[in-house]
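Figure caption, in words: inputs first, then the predicted bound structure.
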Amino acid sequence: MTGPVFRFAPSPNGELHLGHAYSALLNARLAGETDGRLLLRIEDIDTTRCTPEFEQGIYRDLDWLGLEWERPVRRQSDHFDDYAEVLERLVDEDLAYPSFLSRGEARAIIAEAEATGQEWPRDPDGTPVFPNVERHLSASERRERIDAGEPFAWRLDTQAALARISSPLGWREDGAGPDGETGVVPARPELWGDVVIARKEMPTSYHLSVVVDDALQGVTHVVRGRDLFFATALQRLLQELLGLPAPIYLHHDLVLGDDGRKLSKSRGDTALVSLRAAGLTPRDIARMVGL
Ligand code: GLU
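Bound structure (glutamic acid present):
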C-alpha cells in the first residue's frame, strides 16, 4: 500500500502570495498528518507569462516557509510531448475539434442570439459559453483551413465526450464548493461548453496538463483553492475519457484581501517576498492564513 500523494502546483507567472502560502502549508500539513508525500509541480505551459525568475521565487518562498518537497520537480514546459500524445488520442477519437472562430465572431453570434430574446448560457465563471457551431465542420474543411495556416484552438466536444461515459460523473470532495457542496459531488462539465484543451501553437491547456500530470505523478489528493471547484467537473471528464484515476479533491477557502476580494499576483501587498521584506516571519504567515 502506498500512502497518499499531495501536490502543490503553482504557476510561475508572478510572486506567490498569502493564498499560495495557505495552499502549500495545508498540503504539507495534510501530507505530514497522513504519512503522505508532497510534490511540487511547476505549471508553466504559458511560456509567454511564466519566467525562470518567478520559478526561482517559488523555490525561495517555499523554502523560507520551511516546506520540503520531493525532487526532481516536474516542470510542465519540459513535457509538452506527453500532452501532445494525449491530445492526439482525443482528436483521433473525435472528442476534440479545431475551432477557428475568433473571439469577435463568437461575440457576434452571441449578440445575434440575444437580440432575438434567446438567453445565452453562461459558464460557472459567468462568461458566455463559446458557440459550438464548428463541432460538425467536415474533415476536409478542417484540413484545408489548418493547412492554410488559420489560427485555431482545439476544443473538447463536450457532448460527444459525455456520450462516451457510462457511469454518472462526480468526485469526492473533502472540502467544500461555494454553496457548501461536499461529499460526493456530481460533475456537470457541460456547464463550461466546449472548452479549449489545446491551441495551434501549444499542444495543451491548464485542464489537460493537470489531469495528465496528476495521474502520471500518482497524485491521490488534490488540495487547492475553491476558485478551481467548478473546473474539477471538466478535469473529471478528461480523466474518464483518458482512463485516468480520480483523485480525492479538497477545495479550501480563499484568502481574501482587506477589501474582501480574492488575492491576485498583480497585487504586491500580500506577496510573500514583500511580507518577508517587511520583517514578517514564516510563523506570522502561518498565523495570518489561520494555520
Ligand atoms: N497552476 C494552478 C494555479 O496556479 C493551480 C492548479 C491546480 O492546483 O490544479 O492556479
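The two ends are 29 Å apart (CA to CA).
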